[in-house]
Structure formats: structure tokens, C-alpha cells
Structure to design on (600 residues):
């Protein structure tokens, strides 16, 4: 796995050593860095180096830069390797394979270096033994980072008063909010940075260890709690941020708690998060979740975080319990679009992320059994820290939000060529930012009414939503610049006498969705079927044919089973997560918002 990192740096910089025995290189034959066996030896060596280390971060392989080989007996060989490495965001306490970890991006002050290692491999006897290693790593100089990213945070001393404050307040917050049985105390601060957005902020990463005191221990007494000194003790890595906002201090923290190593050896590993079957189950189960839901936005798969797997050979199926990380897309559930066709909200769109616990089976096809999802908006403070000019979320009940939705819908109804008038169903999302004035962005759903678009304006308030399976629904984005006379709306084409007010700048974009019952009937028309009843009420489809429909559908027009019966999606704070139990978990992220302090 290659990482793009700033490697063209002076090697004479100050550095930190990851200690191992020195490597001797006498009497060796030159090998090729492109040789498959040499590359395999490099990967195995780096995994064993990471397993041997007790503190710091997992190192990832950037490239193999030098190879020498000494033959040992008929089938064995000692590989003397020089590895160019980069630091990842995984703690060595996690015991994760480096391939499942991400290298630190430029804005997170990357760390790079070299490892020299000697490893013996006998493939016939399946013996792999790391003899010795010596690693030298160093952070990319602040000046180089600043050239690429002037606003990125920079390293700060661990004993800085604000860093110490960030650690103590965040650890207190973690102990108060976690659902773990015992109190945790600080092991070591491993990383600290500072930056400026709307105000100064400080980031700290540190390791923690379980103590012998229960969680209920008072803060004053907890400081004296001894750490649990046995193989059963849990450890973890915490990432904390401290924001000095005018008048108060705000702290956030997210911790990964790792199971003791002995527990991981008690049972065989389930299929990993990169297993093609597990990925298929996750993707298809998420599609079925979208089909089951009745409101909200379609969720996209970010990564497979953990799983358990139970095969049933008699039935020819396998049962999966998955923990998947998801991100909200711009598609509303009403659209019924496949999630892979929907774009994830970026940092400028008030992003939402979360987790889903999913139960599903796979035989000839994937069958969703149940799901429970928890989602939440990315905190505005984190968005503003990375993107000061990006929109931030607004309360849906604000008068200006309702005004934006109503003005946008008014414009749609006056300018559209649809047969009937549409009315507001729900406001689903609202945000604002300052451009030339306060600009408001409101997303809302609409439903077709029984009134034609030619209905007199005085009668529109009495228009009722069409209460049948052939009613069209839609999803709209309305934009309202609340500045008098700054922008004027052009009269709609063919509607010079529009009654729409010119007092504010309003734009609207809507998608109108064909009812599923109408889609089924359209297919019946294509097939030439004539088994549906033709009476009772007139209605115009978006497809080019008109006739009459029965209010009560025939069996041919049955739509789908009741939705919302398999699970829930709720708004909840981010949970405290333990380290994944399955091998090669979690899988790599598919999406990255570029927010360093947010652990997706």
C-alpha cells in the first residue's frame, strides 16, 4: 500500500527512533525491490515490527527501497530490507494490520521515515521470524506543511497548558459519558497540535488504560485509582479537541477501546471486512434499508467497521451481523434511488454521518433481517474550523426557513408545467451562510394536490393533498437571499403577469417522482395488459398517456410491503466504540470529509 506523503525532505532533520537491534549487512546478495517474494517479505516484516512495538502509531509501507538476501539451507532465506514508511492514524495498541490503516494526510502533519529489518522466511516449513529491526521516523517540517496548507494545525509541546487542559477535560468527559464498567486514566500523550480558525483550537491524542476503580468513582478520588496491571486490562486511544470560543471552552473527544489481546485469541477470526461476500452483504443490505425507510435521506456506505459470521451449512446460508459506517447523501428517500447513484454531502453541505447495526443472511441472494442506525450532523464547530465560510445548520422551525420553503414552492407552482398544484409536505433540512447577505438553503418534500394549476389563487389554500397511490411527490431545494432589492427574479417564460413577488431573490430546483403504482401500470400498458379498472377519478401521469384509474388498485398494481418494519434510523450522539474483533477490520474509508478532528 503506497501513501502519497512529502518524502523529498532533508534527512539531517531531528528524528525519533523506534528501537530494535542494529542490522548487519555482510555477505549478502543484492535483490530486486520489484521481486514478489521481496515485497511479501517487506509486508511481513512491517507487520511484525508493528506487533512488537508497545507505543506510538502503526507504520505503513510506502515502498521497498533496498533488498539483500542471504540463502539459508535449501528453502530458507534471510531478507535484509530497507523500508520507506509513513505513520498511520492507528495506535499500535489496536494491533491492526497496517493495510487497514490510513496514512496521515498533509493537513495532519505527516510522519515518515525508514526501517531496516532482517527477517528469516522458510515458506515450505511456514516459518517467519523477525531477527532485528531499527526504524527512524520524523515529522514533515512545519515549513513544508505550511507551504502546501498555510491554515493547517502545527505541532505543539505536550506540556503546553492548553494541551494539558484538553487532555484532562476530555478524559473527564469520556469517563462520564462512556458505558464502560471502570474508570480510565492517562497513559501517555502521543500527539498534540494547535491551529487557528474562528479562534484558537488544540488537538491532542493520547492513550488510556483501565483502572481498578468503577466508573462511578468521584473525580477527586479517581485521580488516585491504580491502573489495572494484568492481561485483562483494556487500553485505548483518544482524540480530543479544545476550542476556545469567546466566553467559554468547548471540548470534544472520541476514544477507541481495545480488547485485551488474550480475548482476541479465544476464538477463531470471522471473515474480514475486505471479504467480497461481506462487502456484498453490506452493500445490498444498505440498499434494502433504503427501500424499507419512509423518511429522511438515503445513506451511503463509508466502510465496514466490524462483523460476525455464522454459517448454516444445512440451509446453505450464512448469517452476518455487521457494523457499518454510513454517510448521508443528497438524495431523499422519496426518490427511491440506489444509494450508489447518490452523492455524499461534503463539508459544504452540513454533512451527516453515523453507524448501522445490521443483521442479514446470504444464500442465493442477500436478505435484510433487521437494522438500527444512529446518525448525527458533524458539529458546526468542526465544520467552521476547516471551512469558515461553509453553511451551517438552521432550526427547521425558524420563520425565515418556512418563508424560504413557501416562496420556493410558490415559484415552482407558477413556473412549472405540471398538471396539478403541489403543496408543502415536510421541511427536511435547512442551512444558511453569509454571501452578499444572509442566504438560506431549505430542502423540503412536496405532494400533488387535487387542484389543477389553473385553480384561482384565492382557492389554493383549500387544496387538499391527493390521497391516493397515484399522487406524485417531489423533493426541492429552495434558496433565498434575504436582502431587499439585491436580486430580482425574472418573470417565468410564458407568464409575464406572474403574481410572484420580486422583493427577494428566490431560486428553486425540484425533482418530481413518478408514483410506484403508476410505474407498475405504465409497465402494464407496455405489455398491453388491460386487467385494471377504469373508473372513478381522472389523473394525469408524467408519462404521455391519460385515462381514468380506480381508487382501489387491482392485484396487478400492488406496490410493496409496508415500509419501516425492519428497523429504525435515529439521531444520536457518537458512541464510544471498542476495537473491531474481526480480522482486517475496519475496511478503508470510501469517503473523507477532510476534517481531522472527526473520527468517521
Amino acid at each position: 500500500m503506497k501513501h502519497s506523503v512529502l518524502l523529498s525532505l532533508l534527512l539531517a532533520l531531528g528524528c525519533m527512533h523506534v528501537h530494535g537491534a542494529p542490522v548487519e549487512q555482510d555477505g549478502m546478495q543484492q535483490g530486486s525491490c520489484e521481486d514478489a517474494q521481496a515485497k511479501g517479505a517487506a509486508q511481513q516484516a512491517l507487520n511484525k515490527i508493528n506487533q512488537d512495538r508497545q507505543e506510538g502509531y502503526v507504520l505503513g509501507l510506502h515502498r521497498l527501497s533496498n533488498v539483500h538476501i542471504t540463502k539459508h539451507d535449501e528453502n530458507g532465506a534471510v531478507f535484509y530490507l530497507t523500508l520507506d514508511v509513513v505513520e498511520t492514524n492507528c495506535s499500535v495498541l489496536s494491533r491492526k494490520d497496517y493495510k487497514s490503516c490510513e496514512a496521515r494526510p498533509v493537513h495532519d502533519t505527516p510522519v515518515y521515515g525508514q526501517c531496516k529489518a532482517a527477517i528469516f522466511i522458510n515458506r515450505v516449513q511456514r516459518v517467519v521470524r523477525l531477527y532485528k529491526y531499527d526504524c527512524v521516523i520524523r515529522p514533515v517540517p512545519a515549513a513544508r506543511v505550511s507551504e502546501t496548507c498555510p491554515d493547517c494545525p502545527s505541532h505543539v509541546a505536550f506540556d503546553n497548558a492548553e494541551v494539558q487542559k484538553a487532555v484532562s477535560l476530555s478524559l473527564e468527559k469520556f469517563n462520564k459519558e462512556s458505558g464502560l464498567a471502570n474508570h480510565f486514566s492517562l497513559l501517555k500523550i502521543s500527539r498534540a497540535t494547535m491551529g487557528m480558525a474562528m479562534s484558537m483550537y488544540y488537538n491532542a491524542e493520547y492513550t488510556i488504560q483501565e483502572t481498578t476503580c468503577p466508573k462511578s468513582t468521584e473525580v477527586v478520588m479517581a485521580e488516585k485509582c491504580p491502573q489495572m496491571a494484568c492481561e485483562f486490562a483494556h487500553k485505548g486511544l483518544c482524540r480530543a479537541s479544545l476550542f476556545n470560543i469567546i466566553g467559554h471552552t468547548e471540548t470534544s473527544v472520541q476514544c477507541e477501546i481495545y480488547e485485551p489481546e488474550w480475548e482476541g485469541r479465544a476464538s477463531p477470526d470471522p471473515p474480514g471486512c475486505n471479504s467480497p461476500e461481506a462487502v456484498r452483504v453490506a452493500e445490498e443490505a444498505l440498499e434494502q434499508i433504503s427501500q424499507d425507510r419512509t423518511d429522511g435521506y438515503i445513506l451511503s456506505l463509508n466502510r465496514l467497521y466490524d462483523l460476525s459470521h455464522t454459517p448454516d451449512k444445512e440451509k446453505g446460508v450464512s448469517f452476518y451481523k455487521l457494523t457499518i459506517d454510513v454517510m448521508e447523501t443528497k438524495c431523499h428517500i422519496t426518490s427511491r434511488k440506489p444509494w450508489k447513484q447518490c452523492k455524499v454531502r461534503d463539508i459544504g453541505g452540513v454533512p451527516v454521518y453515523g453507524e448501522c447495526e445490521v443483521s442479514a443472511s446470504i444464500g442465493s441472494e442477500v436478505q435484510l433481517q433487521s437494522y438500527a442506525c444512529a446518525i448525527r450532523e458533524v458539529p458546526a464547530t468542526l465544520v467552521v474550523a476547516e471551512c469558515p465560510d461553509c453553511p451551517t445548520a438552521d432550526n427547521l422551525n425558524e420563520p425565515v426557513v418556512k418563508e424560504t420553503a413557501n416562496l420556493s414552492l410558490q415559484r415552482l407552482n407558477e413556473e412549472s408545467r405540471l398538471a396539478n398544484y403541489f403543496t408543502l409536505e415536510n421541511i427536511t433540512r435547512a442551512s444558511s451562510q453569509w454571501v452578499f447577505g444572509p442566504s438560506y438553503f431549505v430542502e423540503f418534500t412536496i405532494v400533488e394536490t387535487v387542484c389543477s394549476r389553473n385553480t384561482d389563487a384565492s382557492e389554493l389554500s383549500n387544496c387538499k393533498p391527493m390521497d391516493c397511490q397515484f399522487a406524485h411527490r417531489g423533493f426541492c431545494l429552495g434558496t433565498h437571499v434575504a436582502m431587499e432589492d439585491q436580486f430580482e427574479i425574472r418573470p417565468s417564460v410564458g407568464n409575464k403577469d406572474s403574481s410572484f413577488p420580486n422583493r427577494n431573490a428566490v431560486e428553486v430546483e425540484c425533482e418530481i417522482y413518478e408514483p410506484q403504482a403508476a410505474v407498475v401500470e405504465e409497465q402494464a400498458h407496455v405489455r398491453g395488459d388491460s386487467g385494471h379498472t377504469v373508473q372513478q377519478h381522472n389523473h394525469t401521469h408524467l408519462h404521455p398517456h391519460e385515462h381514468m384509474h380506480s381508487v382501489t388498485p387491482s392485484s396487478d398494481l400492488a406496490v410493496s410491503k409496508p415500509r419501516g418494519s425492519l428497523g429504525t434510523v435515529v439521531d444520536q450522539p457518537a458512541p464510544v466504540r471498542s476495537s473491531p474483533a474481526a480480522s482486517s477490520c475496519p475496511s478503508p474509508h470510501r469517503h473523507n470529509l477532510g476534517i481531522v478532528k472527526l473520527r468517521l
User: Anything to note?
Assistant: The radius of gyration is 30 Å.
